[in-house]
Design goal:
alpha+beta; Alpha-Beta Plaits; eight-stranded antiparallel barrel; globular
Length: 240
């Protein structure tokens, strides 16, 4: 029944450098019953997904191929946690409070890539997430090459003491369409998009100031052109 995709904010100090996997279930709502779905998810989460090391939340999806749907997000967890499947009572409650109000659900796993991720200590929490997903092509080393480029960006974020948060997640099990690397940018207001859509304003210039003229094209742009089939953005809003 489960469906997994990705992400959420978490404290790096709690489980630093441990395996962190997030389970996302994309829920296609019965449009006439959206209010009952959100209420049902909250009832289910309160009963089964509070008090442990992982927590569950529900987000609405505003843009992208899943716009108009919701995502149920649970984590962080380890691979061993995935062996502990819900019992019959848990599944019955999921059916009653969630499946009664949806027409479809899909799953994907997302694992935090520590080395490529960046979080300034002072950011705090956020109700909004910008998810940028890359579509890897079928070259044997596409995952490694794209992660290498993304990690180089992280190094410049560190060097410039950037104020944004940028989490990097990978799929531990390759998907059919190559959507296996996602960048998660938590943000606090849509006004941030007035000057930048993801990375800080004029970031390419900052990158070249550190790595030399033409380095952005060489290290980042050409790698993405060679090893991906494009990307898409998704914005999620926490349902409180």
């Amino acid at each position: 029944m489960r469906l997994l995709i990705l992400f959420l904010m978490f404290s790096t100090s709690v489980m630093a450098q441990e395996t962190m996997i997030y389970e996302n279930i994309i829920l296609t709502p019965n449009k006439k019953l959206e209010g009952k779905l959100i209420s049902g998810v909250k009832l289910h989460n309160a009963k089964y997904h509070t008090g442990g090391k992982s927590t569950a939340s529900i987000y609405s999806i505003l843009t992208g191929p899943n716009s108009g749907k919701f995502v149920w997000l649970d984590g962080p967890m380890t691979y061993a946690d995935l062996d502990q499947q819900p019992d019959a009572a848990h599944m019955a409650d999921w059916g009653k409070n969630i499946q009664s109000y949806i027409t479809d659900e899909k799953i994907k796993h997302a694992k935090l890539h520590w080395e490529a991720s960046y979080t300034p200590a002072e950011f705090g929490s956020s109700d909004y997430l910008l998810i940028r997903t890359f579509k890897l092509n079928n070259k044997a080393n596409s995952m490694a090459k794209v992660l290498e480029a993304i990690t180089k960006i992280k190094e410049v974020l560190v060097a410039t003491n950037a104020s944004i948060v940028r989490r990097v997640y990978v799929s531990p099990f390759r998907s059919e369409n190559g959507e296996d690397i996602s960048l998660v940018y938590p943000f606090k207001s849509f006004t941030r998009f007035e000057k930048s859509n993801g990375l800080p304003e004029n970031f390419a210039a900052s990158y070249e100031k550190i790595n030399g003229m033409g380095s952005w094209r060489r290290d980042i742009a050409e790698v993405l052109e060679t090893y991906t089939n494009g990307r898409y953005d998704e914005i999620r809003v926490l349902q409180k």
